[in-house]
Amino acid sequence: MQHPRLALVPGEPAGIGPELVARLAQKPREDCTLVAFADPDTLTTAAATLGLPLRILPEDARAHAAGDLCVHVVRNAAPVHFGRTDPRNAQPVVDALQTAARACLDGAFDGLVTGPVHKATINAGGIAYTGTTELLATQAGTDVVMMLANETVRVALATTHLPLRAVADAIQPASLERTLRILHEAMRGPFGIDAPRIAVLGLNPHAGEDGHMGREEIDVITPVLEVLRAQGMDLRGPLPADTAFLPAKLREVDAVLAMYHDQGLPVLKFSGFEHAVNLTLGLPYPRVAVDHGTALDIAGKGIADPSSLFAAVATCARLARSEIAA
Questions:
Q1: Is the dihedral of CA 170, 184, 7, 271 positive or negative?
Q2: What pLDDT, in 10s, does the model give residues 54-68?
Q3: Main-chain phi, psi angles of 146, to 5 degrees
Q4: Does the structure show a pLDDT above 60 at 1?
């Protein structure tokens, strides 16, 4: 089977991304070839801070030994001081993301792994930025769905970063149907599940309790599920969120669709935050991100846990191999 080639973007240079990449480089990978889109000086400094070897190689080379890392050079605009962001480096962060993603769209790479970015700093740098998921979706011209996953559960989101007051209005038949179609196709495609079983949560407590606690389940969610079930999808729900994550329930499904961010993600993070990853479904290539922030308070101290980045690379490599095989 072909060895997938993955683009890797460390993210905010003053955060923990560069040191996590330096740790990742210490073990040559057997499941993929990695190329970091970053400033090599920042990566070298991060490795030195940790007391780790790092040998920067051209992007078309092959990493063989511990500490080897192939790099597509994207220079920072200002000196990097770990723990202190600089808005002058906002444009290089966005450039690295867009360049790596464009390389995936052009077929030069089979998948994209991204580290944490600092949204406030990017906006302070004069770039209107709501998130990497939105950036990649706009570039690719596709609708996408955010899904977080660990070894226990996969949780996709019908809405993402909205105030709770706005969630109910955002759950509309067209958008919900689109989200379920993207989720279903991703489970069948890259994840290789022929007949995916998807649990769909209700919005209200007790899934509305027959309309006594809200009518979104009756007026919006159930009609969409009925249409898609008639087309062959295995959709369970709408289910009360307080019992849908019981272990016995999770064993019966392949993914869960939560109606809003904090309905599903606290359960996922409690069940295994360190190994959780963030996937963008619906892009023409696999994209997997770490499930943590820039952690500026510990950047450069050598104590950041690399588990999520390791899991993100392993997940992206597995999905990319599945797409290559298809």
A1: positive
A2: 999 999 998 889 999
A3: -85, 130
A4: no
HEC-encoded secondary structure of 136-149: HHHHHCCCCEEEEE
Q: Distance (Å, rounded) from C-alpha 31 to C-alpha 113?
A: 14
Contacts with 57 (C-beta within 8 Å, 6 or more apart), sequence order:
63, 68, 69, 70, 71
Q: How far apart are CA 132 and CA 214, in angstroms?
A: 33
Q: Average of pLDDT values for 294-323?
A: 94
Per-residue tokens: 119: 């949204």
| Cis, bond preceding 116 (omega within 30 deg of 0) | no
Residue found under tokens 């190994």: 275
Residue 220 φ/ψ, nearest 5 degrees: -120, -60
pLDDT in tens, 11-66: 999 999 999 999 999 988 888 999 999 999 999 999 999 999 999 999 999 888 99
Dump pLDDT digits (tens) for 198-214: 999 999 999 999 999 99
CB 291 within 8 A of CB 148: yes
**Backbone dihedral region for residue 153 (phi beyond 0: left; psi -120 to 50: alpha; all else: beta):** beta
Cis peptide before 223 (omega within 30 of 0): no
CA distance 161 to 278: 14
- Centroid of chain to Cα 166: 23
Tokens describing residue 94? 């966005």
* R_g (Cα) of the chain, nearest Å: 20
For the chain, how are helix, strand and coil distributed in percent, rounded to 5? 40, 20, 40
Cα separation, 108 vs 297, whole angstroms: 36
Closest by alpha carbon to 60, among 52, 51, 71, 49? 71
**β-pair partners for 37:** 72
Residue 2's Cβ-count burial label (10 Å; 0-12, 13-18, 19+) is: exposed
The domains found in the chain, sorted by start residue, are 1-142+284-326 (3.40.718.10), 143-282 (3.40.718.10)
Say what the pTM is.
0.92
Select from 48, 101, 16 the least CA-distant residue to 309.
16
